[in-house]
Amino acid sequence: MLLFAGSLWHIAAGLLLFLAGLSVAIAQKRIFCIPQKRAIALYLWHSFFCIFYFWYSLNNSADSAQYYIRSLDHDSGFRFGTHGVYHFLSFFTQVLKLSYGNLFLLFNIIGYIGLLSFASALQIVTERSHRQVRKFSIAFIYLPGMSFWSSAIGKDAITFMAAGLATWAALDISRRAPVIALSALLFLVPRPHMAGIFLLSFCLALLISSRVGIYKKIALLAVAVPLSAFGVQFALSYVGLGEASNLSAINDLFETRQGYNLGGGSSVDIAAMSVPMRMFTYLFRPLLFDAGGILGLVVSLENLLLLGLLLAVILRKRRTRSALGRFEFVFFLLFVLASWFVLANSTANLGIAIRQKTMFLPMLIVLLFSLWQDRPKQPIANKR
Questions:
Q1: Has residue 1 been placed in a domain?
Q2: Range of the domain at 365
Q3: The model's pTM
């Protein structure tokens, strides 16, 4: 049952899905403007991790297998969260009769679109940076962790696609507003609380930003504010804060959720730390001194790279203006800080943290590279 090819139909479907992903890599140039060779290389890179994750899930405990198995007999109505993913998968398992391996290839495409959009946003924000900075930025689109977690059946591929598309769309919000709406929906289905953070950050950025014309701002706010209010309230209800009336109730919930995921995945107890140390640990650990095994070593090298980028931006002697426009800068900053704070204070397991932070890493990386300029420059958004 858990195979790439259990029948001729599964073989054909697998081939079609792989070619569909390759077609996305070829056709993307009109939308994302990634050089053709790089886009194909990224697809092969991402597909490698898809196959590796598939093999890993057959020999180890993995959420992907549970998602597939539960979708085979899922017959209840649609609900947000985990059941929303079951409902989505049930169409492909019950109607199209796709195999476990076929679904890996499907989610490989979903995650790859997120990677493409992230790569495009990073390419745009570094287009006038020094050549060495542009070369360094390329390393971040090949981070193994992002491709690994976004290539498997589950929530992570969907939310990574949402994060990548949102980062790309925000760079030209007047023309890509529908993509922002799609990103919010992609967050909402698997993780409603992230949709609430996303919409609230978007609305606050619109209010603060002066880049968007007054009439467009009013029109966008007329749609975004009600959606944001609904999204935040829905997210609070989803995580158990629907009746919360004070900070004590919120703190109690954070402590409860930390207890849910304290076991397994890491020997580091995030819950026992102070808030600043908890946030640092969530984003930048494991490091080399507490990495366990080959996978832990890879993750620690990624974290060192990210930490190095942050320090390079902070310690630069020449302060320069961000390459982002005011709206994008505020939006990215609010979403990253809010997501980072909420997730770091509701997660105690580093194994879960490594997966979850892919929901805001694209924005964080683009934000940091936007500050790494050689000289003061006009924001890219104002030159389009």
A1: no
A2: 8-383
A3: 0.86
